[in-house]
Amino acid sequence: MTKYSTLGYQAAQERESAQISLVLTWLSLAAILTLIGIGAKAWSSAHYSHAFALWGFILPVAANMAWFAIYRNRDVQKTGLLVTVSFLFTYLIASGGESNTGPLWFYVFPPLVFFLTNLKTGTLILLLVYLVAIIVFQFPGLPFVQAEYSSDFKLRFFATLTFESIFCFVLEASRLKARNELLDLALTHEHAAKTDELTGLSNRRDILNRLSEEFSRYQRTGHHFSIVLIDLDLFKNINDHYGHSAGDAALKQFAIVVQSVIRQTDVAARWGGEEFLLLLPDTSLIPALTLAERLRSEVARENFSFQGQDLPITISAGVCSISQADSIDNMLRQADLHLYSAKEAGRNRIAPRVRSQAADTQNAPSA
Ligand SMILES: Nc1nc2c(ncn2[C@@H]2O[C@H](COP(=O)(O)OP(=O)(O)OP(=O)(O)O)[C@@H](O)[C@H]2O)c(=O)[nH]1
């Protein structure tokens, strides 16, 4: 998965295209009003065909707005407006507009195409615009070309349009660069705010949010979920005998084991110190106990080591399902009580007990 496919990027992209759509709606409205206005001006100067042609462009702009209002398709909205504006500007440069001022509208194009498309597509469209202008300027005899422009005008037109295009390209490129850097920074902060630095798992704040989301989902849909509160056994001894760095290494290795056991939809978090919490969506008590038991036996089997020394790591855990509680606080309290009873019963075990656990944990180390 690339960083551009993460939820954060997708949300930012969605916000940006929603903004572009809004601007396009206002631009379309402004275009309609402008076309009405300059059409009326042409009419008052007795340029009837020109007035009708300008008013004729109102139809596709209005149709594009209506299409978007019904289907909310932003790509069609963008393409529709770009195509209409392209034809309008081609008409203006070919007809000369009022007093040969039609080509002046071309200056709207560079900022508009870079705003609506990306740098590559924008540049391609601008090259097409140049091609249209060159054809109109070089072949005044063509049937659709009614205007003739002086050499001086053509030269200055291309020079100024080129200058404007390059300027818009550079501005857009630096805007995109700044926007991506800002987005990266925001995502890094967002990730840091949700992640435990040592283990890379979710932190307490993140899992509390997810628990409350899962609880709301349960209230809406009735989908059960469970939690597993895990504590590494006699962890103080690990720190005391092998050093704090060995303890840290064991916590990291434990996080890797947890992630290899849980499903992708489950969430593992460092609850604090040497305590961890699992959130298991769509899981009732028995499957949650089975998963906790599998994790316990994986941890007991895993070879935890630090700088060549083996670390004796086992876990105890308390499990609770939403069917046994009426709130998140209550679930956490019950899981904590079960964890306490697992410790009391000799550690390296899961509570509440299921029959199959008894055989597995007969040889569990005592406190
Ligand atoms: N290395 C390391 N140790 C930690 C970290 N967080 C908490 N601890 C240690 O974990 C130990 C927890 O010890 P206790 O709460 O006494 O419990 P325990 O020794 O695990 O005994 P039981 O829970 O009864 O099995 C303490 O010594 C903490 O200093 C950490 O991030 N790194």
TrEMBL record:
It catalyses: 2 GTP = 3',3'-c-di-GMP + 2 diphosphate. Its EC number is 2.7.7.65. Residues 223-355 form the GGDEF domain. The keyword Membrane applies. The chain crosses the membrane at residues 20-40, 52-70, 79-96, 102-119, 124-141. Keywords: Membrane, Nucleotidyltransferase, Transferase, Transmembrane, Transmembrane helix. The keyword DNA-binding does not apply. SMART domains: GGDEF. NCBIfam families: GGDEF. InterPro entries: Diguanylate_Cyclase, GGDEF_dom, Nucleotide_cyclase, Rev_trsase/Diguanyl_cyclase. One of its GO terms (molecular function) is diguanylate cyclase activity. This is diguanylate cyclase.
